[in-house]
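An instance noted here:
***
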Amino acid sequence: MTRRVSPIQAIRAEIDALFTSHHDLVEVIEDVARLGARLIIQTAVEAEVDAFLGRARYQRASIASASVAGDSGDAKETVVRPGHRNGHCPTTVKTTSGPITVARPKLRGTTEKFASRLFGTGVTRTHALETLVIASFVRGLSTRDVEGALADALGPEAALSKSTVSTICQAIVAEYDAWCRRDLTGVELDYLFLDASHFKMHEASSRAEPILAAWGITTDGKPVFVGLAAAGAESTDAWEDFLTDLVGRGLRPPLLIISDGAPGLISAAELVFPASLRQRCLVHRARNVVAKVSSDDQAEVKADFWKIFDISDLGEDVKVGQPLVELVQRRIDAFADTWGRRYPAAVKCLLTDRQSLTPYLRFPLEHHKRVRHSNFIERTFGETRRRVKVIGRFPGETSCVSLVWAVLDRAARGWRGFTSTSKGLRILQDLRRALLHPPAQLHPTLAPATEAA
């Protein structure tokens, strides 16, 4: 009589099938992470049932009772309970990769009710196993042995095969290395977003260290993930090295750079891309201003802050450019007059680097709400932090950058691009000529002769 395939064997078969398919590597890694979570949780639940019944799957109670005697004849204490397995029922478990379905064993003929010590009577969420799953896969991305880590925690049946672990480790690191060296000559950007997120990645350091990242919107309106690298700090030197590497591989200056107010980032951007305009994230600046206001007035101050940049009252015929920039700068002065006496620190925060708050007003109107802040990056970094927050600390820099890249590269495939009207395209083209390809000026010594002629 042919035995049914157990849920554990079925999951392992799915993992093996992924690596023989022709799917994209990043998609495979994402799917393997989810299947790995299922495999470990499924194995843990099955092991609990084995311990509860006192025998393994398909093992008879009489055989289990006989097997508890050792070579010396001394019996080991093993409780063999009446009852048997009676199939499985699907149960959903929430993980950072999304909900996954586990086949929960059903028991019949038992004298007492089975309750999982790992999940309780109802499986909904398990932080301990989720930590184990993610931490094991992260370690596997460097040199750690996933098989050993899982076997120590859940027994040898929980471990993935060494060949599968090796495939994951080698493939993702190779893909990331190739991505870091790729030619960027064909990438022409209108907008470049820069930001960093901090992770604990070195055992010798107690503080989180930054991963520097760059995204962009091309002249065709398409989103592109440009660069990623680890750094010791968000210093000018670190950001300059990061941006210089991108330029060295062919990246051309963008029209507009969008970032938060990190001094090192700002200095490096102005050094490497002196012709590009710089937009300071309005969301970050709003948070900075409101943080210096009492809780009673925060809602009103926040509303007044965003009114500065609300141009909907100007009608549909509003023209972008220097006149609009000057109008908003006058509104900033009005805000300072209103709140300056009560909250001088908040107003000083707004006035600091005020010119960097309005460059986006020179760009197409349809792009304003997406290029006046760096939340485009922050949402994606938030997804990365959500995936890895249960780890605590990465085992090394390679594993940290590799996993962050895998998550961000996957997320980048779902980004929305920009659309432009014919008017917007003309505005971008005019900005491109003015900023990046200005007309050559006459040599000073030629000017008198020209005037005389």
